[in-house]
Design the sequence.
């Protein structure tokens, strides 16, 4: 009998954890949409931030996303094509695939620091755009 | 001619990830050089983070953000692992197909929410609850850890579910035929079979929690002080980098590159362990 009770307990616990997970989702979505929808008006999209709107934020957001896509999509697709069509089965291709897998999960802040170092740090110093700290 | 160009460009694109990896490591290492030379490995154990009056130098130690990162991740993992396992078991063994499908969609939705939304929600709606039930200021290590847990649960649950789903039905059915209960099937058939995938998913989530910036930045309090109590505000490596990067100079800047280097090396090691050792590479 004991094992049947244990079985029930475990199954109830697992259902409970699913319910907890789902309720957090609904909690977040509910507060987000409630607070969001009640504060959206037409002028939200037609004014800049200083006037209580988000127009400039949207423009910045999409410009940045498009810029990133323009750079990344061709490179990413070409890399995929290489791996599948040219390097298929080769040692190099498998190394690259594994590396990309790992790089995909690199913390975004580290990528930010890296790009800051190569693009921003140099321009802020007086040495010019491509100042190298060596 | 065109074909050759195409091939070369695709080769260049493919090897870019390799050069990026080398590049990130080299750049972080170079820029961290000053701090490495000044503090060496004592950096890891020093609690002081103070710039001199003239902004030229100072004493910088990574102990507080490093411990903050580790502790918030530890709290998150302690909460997330059992819950994610429970959800995965529910999805694979308990729920009917239709319920499992809709819950799966909800879980994947939760995984797709940008981390800054978790941060905002945590700050305005969750931190007050922590404050009234546990005490403290609302923002602090505990709040950051819990919200971090909510963030990584769906991710962990989804991979664990996939791993559990690979268990062949024949194995499960034979166990049921012998009179095993669901829990016994889970414990003695599914878990041993999908062990690698489950450990892999836990480690991947760990890597995520370590590097999470925005959600934690909202919730951890961002103060350079050692934690004495679990609700104390402190800071973590990504949060310190995000907050102080624009203003720092010279040695402080270099110390932050040092921290970034530590974070990069640690998360790279963690993620590659998970991917290669536990998750394995499925052919294609």
Sequence:
């Amino acid at each position: 009998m004991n094992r049947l009770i244990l079985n029930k307990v475990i199954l109830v616990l697992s259902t409970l954890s699913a319910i907890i997970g789902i309720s957090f989702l609904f909690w977040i979505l509910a507060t987000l949409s409630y607070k969001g929808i009640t504060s959206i008006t037409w002028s939200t999209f037609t004014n800049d931030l200083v006037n209580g709107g988000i127009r400039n934020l949207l423009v910045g957001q999409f410009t940045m996303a498009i810029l990133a896509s323009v750079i990344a999509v061709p490179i990413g697709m070409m890399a995929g094509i290489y791996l599948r069509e040219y390097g298929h089965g080769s040692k190099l291709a498998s190394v690259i695939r594994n590396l990309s897998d790992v790089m995909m999960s690199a913390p975004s802040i580290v990528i930010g620091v890296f790009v800051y170092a190569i693009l921003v740090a140099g321009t802020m110093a007086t040495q010019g755009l491509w100042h190298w700290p060596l | 001619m065109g074909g050759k160009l195409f091939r070369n460009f695709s080769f260049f694109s493919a090897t870019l990830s390799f050069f990026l990896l080398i590049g990130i490591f080299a750049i972080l290492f170079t820029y961290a050089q000053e701090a490495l030379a000044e503090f060496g490995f004592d950096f890891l154990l020093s609690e002081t983070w103070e710039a001199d009056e003239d902004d030229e130098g100072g004493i910088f130690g990574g102990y507080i953000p490093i411990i903050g990162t580790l502790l918030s991740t530890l709290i998150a993992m302690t909460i997330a692992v059992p819950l994610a396992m429970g959800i995965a078991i529910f999805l694979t063994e308990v729920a009917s197909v239709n319920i499992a499908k809709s819950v799966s969609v909800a879980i994947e939705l939760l995984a797709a929410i940008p981390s800054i939304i978790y941060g905002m929600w945590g700050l305005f709606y969750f931190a007050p609850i922590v404050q009234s039930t546990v005490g403290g200021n609302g923002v602090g290590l505990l709040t950051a850890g819990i919200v971090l847990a909510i963030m990584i649960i769906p991710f962990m649950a989804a991979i664990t579910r996939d791993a559990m789903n690979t268990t062949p039905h024949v194995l499960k059915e034979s166990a049921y035929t012998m009179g095993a209960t669901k829990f016994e099937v889970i414990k003695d058939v599914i878990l041993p079979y999908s062990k690698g995938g489950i450990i892999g998913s836990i480690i991947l989530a760990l890597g995520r929690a370590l590097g999470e910036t925005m959600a934690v930045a909202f919730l951890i309090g961002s103060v350079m002080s050692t934690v004495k109590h679990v609700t104390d505000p402190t800071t973590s490596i990504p949060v310190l980098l995000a907050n102080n990067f624009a203003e720092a100079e010279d040695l402080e800047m270099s110390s932050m590159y040092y921290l970034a280097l530590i974070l990069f090396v640690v998360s790279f090691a963690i993620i590659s362990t998970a991917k290669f050792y536990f998750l394995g590479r499925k052919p294609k």
Chain A is about 80% helix and 0% strand. The helical segments of chain A are 2-39, 42-46, 55-86, 91-104, 108-124.
